[in-house]
Description:
The protein is an all-alpha fold. It is 93% helix and 0% strand. The chain is built from 2 helices and no strands.
Amino acid sequence: MSLLTPEPGLVFWMTLSFGIVAFILIKYGFPIILQMVNKRKDYIDNSLLAAKQANEELAKVTENSQAILEQTRIEQAKMLEVAAQTRDRMIEEAKGLARTEADKIVADAQKQIIIEKENAMRAMRSEIASLSISVAEKILREKLNTEEEQSKMINRLMDEVMISKS
């Protein structure tokens, strides 16, 4: 008998164990993982869409700023010195408004992205906790399947409680 040649019984039980683990993963693990990946993909797609919309709104604000600048230049030609002072004031107001609007849009988009990211993380943590509890419960059920094992576990836990109270 060679140490490198496995016995047929060992190969059978290893194959059976692998099949059971693979079945459990395919049946229960992979759908949840795929669902979380799809949620994350949707979140990223929504974030990209929000960023694109923010850029479009910023472009509109810039266009509005350019229109106000052009109007100011026309008035400058008509009013000479008075128009020059008015033009400078309007340019500064338009730039301030454009900066304020752009900053507000970008800040709102960033807040929304952060909120969506936190929501996705909370959902992911909740799913992981639920899976961990389910796995622990199944392991305990398998490990404590006889009364003798249950009694040993209860006695050990009672001893630990007594020691911790002392």
